[in-house]
Amino acid sequence: MTSFSELTTMRVGGPISRYVAYSSTRSLISGAKKIWADGDDWMALGSGSNLVVSDSGFDGDVIHVQTRGVTVKKATGQRVSIHAEAGEDWDAFVAHTLAQGVRGLETLSGIPGTVGASVIQNIGAYGSEVSDTIESIDFLEYPTGVRRTVLAEELELGLRTSALKTGKLRGLVLGVTFSLEPAEEGLSIPIRYDQLAAVLGVQPGDRAPLDAVRPTVRSIRASKGMLLSEEDPDSVSSGSFFLNPLVTEKISLSLPQEAPRWLVGDQQQDRVVPLEAGTPDDVTFSEPGLVKISAAWLIEYSGIPKGFSLPGSRAAISSKHSLAITNRGGASSGDIGELARYVITTVGNKTGIYLVPEPTLLGIEL
């Protein structure tokens, strides 16, 4: 019997009651409709890179999406629409777009997963998110089996979330269409992430040679154990296990000055007006700004170092990046959950900030 330990990058998870892999969109649609008509529990699976399942497994149908295909749909002005089937490997797809001389996805190189899952999670890294380039998705609605195009604005893409992840839209992603742009003068999109800009030798906000960005991003990811590799035990994980929390400015100021933090969203600009003028009619008072705090910094600040493991556990914090929980060989879902709960509690007790898991957890309570 197939188990999730064979199909996920964390290599944990129990048996699957009914498992079917689909390599064509036609068979995927037909199979999904039949499963849905039977009324049993079901779930879709891509590469399993953002999924952690309990050792009891899943008593239902697992629809493994393995469809392939990439096509240029249209080129209009300064934009190029490229469509990829949901089962395409994400990193290979990024490489393909760069080989076509278009930019937009280069800083998302090296992220494990499939094209279809990229939308569900709204994957992001090094100053970019997939939401920056999504035009629409080809979608099969549950339970009606109606196939339709869902535009980007309907997907409610946010920080590692979407209407697909929250369950507001239920069904299967069949494919994704991206809006990219020709790489004029062989240059990338603006590099917004300080570390990446420094390694590339450019100022934040400047562009870099397109052919240099992808290998640089992959190298940085590898140095953090965030690039899948048979030779790196730290990559046996689900990537970042915790989201970088968003807090109010007041809470962020309660942390030590050295805590990495980034303002999120539009910030209201300061204005100076004469006292006698009163409050101008065009002045509005917005909600306090939000600040993103580094979850990795919070974990280490709370006394949990890289490589940390609970006594007797086969789960550990990555030795390269404190944001990842790794399977050191033979870990159970209980080991993963126990360590995650320890991190959440320890950071919460130290800082008053309770971390939220990033991967989808099935049958695991934190």
Can you offer a commentary on this structure?
It contains 9 helices and 19 strands. By secondary structure, the protein is of the alpha+beta class. It folds into 3 domains: 4-65, Uridine Diphospho-n-acetylenolpyruvylglucosamine Reductase, domain 2 (2-Layer Sandwich), CATH 3.30.43; 70-223, Uridine Diphospho-n-acetylenolpyruvylglucosamine Reductase, domain 3 (2-Layer Sandwich), CATH 3.30.465.10; 226-266 and 287-366, UDP-N-acetylenolpyruvoylglucosamine reductase, C-terminal domain (Uridine Diphospho-n-acetylenolpyruvylglucosamine Reductase, domain 1, Alpha-Beta Complex), CATH 3.90.78.10. The strands form 6 sheets. Strands 5, 6, 7, 10, 11 and 12 form a 6-stranded antiparallel beta sheet that branches. The chain is globular.
Largest sheet: 6 strands, antiparallel
| Strand element count | 19
Secondary-structure arrangement, i.e. CATH architecture of the largest domain: 2-Layer Sandwich
What are the secondary-structure elements, in order, as H or E? EHEEEEEHEHEEEEHEHHEEHEEHEEHE
Query: Kindly state the mean pLDDT as a whole number?
Result: 94
Low-confidence stretches: none
- Characterize the quaternary organization of these chains: single chain
Radius of gyration, in angstroms, nearest whole number: 22 Å
Given the helix and strand composition, which structural class is it? alpha+beta
Tally of contiguous helical segments: 9
**CATH-derived topology of the largest domain:** Uridine Diphospho-n-acetylenolpyruvylglucosamine Reductase, domain 3
| Cα shape | globular
- Helical proportion? 10-25%
* CATH classification, class level of the largest domain: Alpha Beta
